[in-house]
Amino acid sequence: MSTVDPKVTSGLGWARLSELVSAVQSRQTSAVEVTQAYLDRIAADDARLGCFLRVAHHADDGPAVSALAQAASVDAAIAAGQGDSLPLAGVPVGLKDVLCTRGLATTAGSQILAGWVPPYDATVVSRLRSAGAIVVGKLNMDEFAMGSSNENSAFFPCRNPWDVTRVPGGSSGGAAAAVAADLVPLAMGSDTGGSIRQPAALCGVVGLKPTYGRVSRYGVVAFASSLDQIGPLARSVEDVARALQVIGGHDPHDATSVSSPQPDYLSACADRPGPAGSSLRGLRIGLPREYFVAGNPDAAGASGLDPQVAAAVQQALDELRRHGAELVDVSLPHTEYAIAAYYFIATAEASSNLARYDGVRYGLRKSVSKGEAQAAGRSALFDMYCRTRAAYFGPEVKRRILLGTYVLRSGYYDAYYRRASQVRTLIRRDFDQAFSRCDLICTPTSPVLAFRSGERSDPLAMYLADIYTISCNLAGLPGLSLPCGFATPLDGNMPLPIGLQLLGPTLSEALLLRVGAAYQRMTDWHTRRCPLAMGKAAQ
Amino acid sequence: MSDFEAVIGLECHVQLDTQSKLFTGAATTFFAEPNEHIDPHTLGLPGSLPVPNRRAVELALRMGLACGCTIRSHSQFARKHYFYPDLPKGYQISQYDAPLCEGGSVEFWHDGAPRSVHLLRIHLEEDAGKNVHVAGGMVSLLDYNRAGVPLIEVVSQPDLRSAAEAAEYLRAIRRLVRYLGISDGNMEEGSLRCDANVSIRPRGSERLGTKVEIKNINSFRYVEKAIEYEIARQTDVVVRGGSVRAETRGWDAERGQSRSQRSKEEAHDYRYFPDPDLPPLHVDAAWRDAVHARLPELPMARLRRYSDGLGLPAQDALLLISERELSDYFDAALLTCGIRPAMSTLPPEQRVLAKLAANWLLSELLGALHRDGKDLGQSPISAAALGELVSLISDGTISGKQGKDVFARLYAGEKSSPAALVDALGMRQISDPAIIEEACRRVLMAPANQKQVEQYQKNPKLLGFFVGKVLAETGGRAKPDAVSALLQRLLAERGSQSP
User: Fold this and answer.
1) How high is the pLDDT of residue A326?
2) Which of the listed residues A28, A348, A448, B260 has the most CB atoms within 10 Å of its CB?
3) pLDDT for B185-231, tens place per residue?
4) Residues near B113 by beta carbon (within 8 Å), at least 6 away in sequence
């Protein structure tokens, strides 16, 4: 199936974050050396990929934004004997550009925020910094996280490192591609309808969308507040667990933050004692019959689940069963309404969240003389709003603002937003019922392989590709995507990664991570490197 | 009388007296440099999130419970959208279809009768910033200090029927929030603001007419003026055969008239929806009951206590409750006189005492303070001192006239207590009957007074002459009424003895 040589570790020699962290903590290497090595990689390769919107490598930007300065202070802390309290000591991390970084421009992939420098760090960012991670830069994304291909970035598209003619997925495309190309060992993405899991699948890395409220949204540029979650992307489930341990947990700055304490995710990933191969005994994996309809034509007339994706997922299920898991048939009967409900709720919230980009306080402003405004029949103020938002929002963002504004119109609230909220409740109940019969649910992450840039121009077809990931956000549940195979598409000659999605009940991250880690002990898909990363390794 | 009846409802915005803003830790101080009290949430920076201020919720609860509202165990914050530079997020966080408080009423006294205005709701919301238009300049400046400051909006039912009654209702709201300690209710500083919904209908009709909203009423004086203007304007429109247009009008205090701001067709679509950043606001029974238990005595309860319990005239009682400070002062003075607030009905002599205390407070003390441009908080005479002075007068230790002297000295800043002052000045009245009788007999026996003694039989007005003499004899310390009574008796005895 694949021609890629397995067992190739990072070009820098660390297969796992734990190895990198202990090398830095024990001063076998320094955070500065590690950071410099990754900065060099980014400098060498990112021009081809477009993962980074901004790299924190300018020493003159000050210690808050210079990756090397951050690394030096981590090394100083380790020298002072504080290394043990830094679970991410020296780990270079890339941040999707929705996370506010004090002193380092944050744009959410939009022109309207071009050059905006936040005066504060998002909670996730400050927790990463306190854990010894090094913020090396801000990652490309679809504008305001609206998109599934990264083609909606206002700056430049990001490419899939497995085949640079293809999209990395989206909206956290820069995050997934950067991890896949080993430009960073860890990245943070955001997931509103699949924006961590889908690019993770298309780029062959692990991506976790935590339970809604598990990770603070404070300092995250909002797309749809009731759906957005920040989560880690890395090459292994264990690495993702290590990152979640740092970024998760209650935050008093986020009223929707979950207050219950976090379990030990790393020990959840550890290999269990017992007969080899039986670590999943007793685990019931639910298969929603609505999700496994191969070739089911969707509303746009295009085919649904790619048979190659279906086959890879089936192979993964067989593997899990061989290791003791029991597969059970479950039903999520309201799945067919999920996309419609999602696009009512997400666009309504987006139209509201994006109202603040008015050119008054920050970001770009476009205005003309009072006379010109009056000639257009508008007050100078109203004209400024119109011109600013017309000039600096991209077409997909405008489409969603218009849709959301329509959804919330006076007199239509009941028919649209309230109805969508009711569907959301039904979808949540679907999952509750399913989880009374199984411990977790297994599905493909994306129905298709990475497609070619520019290939999909119909927004509706793009929306429908989110079918497997969206329900999870509507229900607020955790979802994990991990590589489960490769397939060469009919229109190409490069093998492309396939993602397996595990969905669990509220706050079941530890279970998802345990099963994911077990799967990664049975398989080696996650150890495969894209040609680009291997090329670097050979240098 | 006009053939039309006015139907008026008020929407009052009250700024809550909290240290920090409704959804963020930035301070709320009124006096500050522009944009001194800002932070990421106040400015609506990307990524900022609201976290409710528990203290603000508690103050809103106080108002709701004081008005007898139903408190929702789960109320919801909603976003109200419109574009304006002083609104940082492009929406205001308010409450819409699930407000914290519903129903209830506000009680007050108007035109010699008690009135009760029903409330629709009381909800929490955040304030906007301020646009500062630079005179003649090409730019507008923005000050976001006020943005995010907690407000409650108190929405009345259309129960008011005249501009004067509406103004009285607004005064009742101000009084109530000050009694509750939730706001200073200062209209000039904007901590109390009011919009009025006004319509007219033929007298006797039950149907509501087309309503016009009057905005920007920022003083008690203008509430009455603006509503009167609007009633007259609408009456004029209808009398001329026209019909009132649903619109929002702004009051222009300088010109004394309102101007149309926008018609119903131009009204904003606020696109309300539940704020997804804020879970439902939970107020459990324990919290609600604890707040309820800590409510102070409310103005109308005090009014009843003063008029029914103490027997004060309505005019005095209304004046006393007008400010909580005044009423508290009065209660403290009464306490020194031995009258506790818990006493429901007083014996007649204590009623007299209470009335005396009210007089000294309302006429003497307030009169003096008013003359000097001071308020009660700056009074040189404490409530205890005034109560003591009133007691000294009441029990006959000193005369009312002497009381004024003592008052003047206390007011001028003498540090002694009234009793000590009375002693030091040798003012203590002589009430021993034997001493008084002796003085009276001396005056009546004095040869110099015999002409008047003889004339007294024909001219009883001469009693005053003898009283004056006896008071002079005792250094002004004999009790005048006792002296007067005794002299009358002694002179009558003489008359009957004479041939």
Assistant:
1) 96
2) A348
3) 999 889 999 999 999 999 999 999 999 999 988 888 899 999 999 99
4) none
A195 flagged as catalytic: yes
The 10 Å Cβ neighbour count of residue B329 is 23
The residue ranges of DSSP E strands in A272-325, in sequence order, are 284-288
Q: In the structure encoding, which two tokens stand for residue A330, read together?
A: 């479950």
Using DSSP, how many helices (H) and how many strands (E) does chain B show?
Answer: 16, 17
Confidence bin at A64 (pLDDT 50/70/90): low
**Helical residues (DSSP H) of A223-323, grouped into ranges:** 237-247, 265-269, 307-322
Q: What angle do CA A247, A252, A257 make, to 5 degrees?
A: 60
pLDDT at A267 over 70: yes
Locus of tokens 């429908």:
A464
pLDDT bucket at B180, cuts 50 / 70 / 90: very high
What integer is the mean pLDDT of A98-117?
96
pTM of the model: 0.90
Residues 6+ apart with CB under 8 A from A110: A143, A144, A154, A357, A392, A393, A394, A397
Q: Are A240 and A207 in contact (CB under 8 A)?
A: yes
Q: Decide if B89 and A358 are in contact by the 8 Å CB cutoff.
A: no
At residue A293 the predicted structure's pLDDT band, cuts being 50, 70 and 90, is low
A10 is catalytic: no
- The CA-atom distances, in angstroms, between B143 and each of A361, B22, B88, B129, B193 are 11, 17, 11, 6, 19
Portions of chain B given CATH number 1.10.10: 433-497
Q: List the structure tokens of A69.
A: 């300065």
Task: Write the single-letter amino acid at B397.
Answer: T
Taking the Cβ of residue A100 and every Cβ of chain B, the question of whether any pair is shorter than 8 Å is answered with: yes
What is the Cα–Cα distance from B272 to A181, expressed in whole angstroms? Answer: 45
Tell me the pLDDT band of A291, cut-offs 50, 70 and 90: confident
Query: How is the beta sheet containing B273-274 ordered, strand by strand?
Result: B91-95, B77-81, B273-274
Predicted confidence at residue A212, as pLDDT, reads 98
Beta strands A479-487 and A326-330 are: unpaired
Q: Is A369 exposed, middle or buried (0-12, 13-18, 19+ CB in 10 A)?
A: exposed
Is beta strand B77-81 parallel, antiparallel or unpaired with respect to B273-274? antiparallel
Is the pLDDT score of A302 beyond 50? no
Mean pLDDT of chain A: 91
Model-level ipTM above the cut of 0.90: yes
Residues of B in contact with A259 (CB under 8 A): none
The position carrying tokens 């929030």 is B177
- Of residues B49, B83, B270, nearest to A255 (C-beta): B49
Question: d(Cα A222, Cα A211) in Å, to the nearest integer?
Answer: 17
Euclidean distance between CA atoms B161 and B166, whole angstroms: 8
Any idea which residue has 């430049």 for tokens?
Answer: A156
Task: Quote the tokens at residue A229.
Answer: 């979650």
Compute how many other C-beta atoms are within 10 angstroms of the C-beta atom of residue A408. 23
Q: In this structure, are residues B78 and B273 in contact, taking their beta carbons and an 8 Å threshold?
A: yes
Residue of A nearest to B270 (CA): A410
User: Which one-letter DSSP state was computed for residue A97?
Assistant: T
What three-state secondary structure class fits A480? Answer: strand
- Residue of B76, B82, B83 to mutate, interface with A, max A Cβ within 10 Å: B83
Q: What separation in angstroms does the CA of A39 have from each of A63, A135, A410, B65, B320?
A: 16, 11, 51, 62, 76
Q: How far apart are CA B15 and CA B192, in angstroms?
A: 6
Domains parsed from chain A with CATH numbers:
1-357+396-534 (3.90.1300.10), 362-392 (no CATH)
**pLDDT tens track for A377-418:** 999 999 999 999 999 999 999 999 999 999 999 889 999 999
- On whether any CB of chain A is under 8 Å from the CB of B130, the answer is no
What is the CATH number assigned to the segment(s) B433-497?
1.10.10
Count CA atoms within 13 Å of residue B60 on its CB side: 32
Nearest CB among A98, A354, A360 relative to B85 is that of A360
A412 touches chain B (CB under 8 A): no
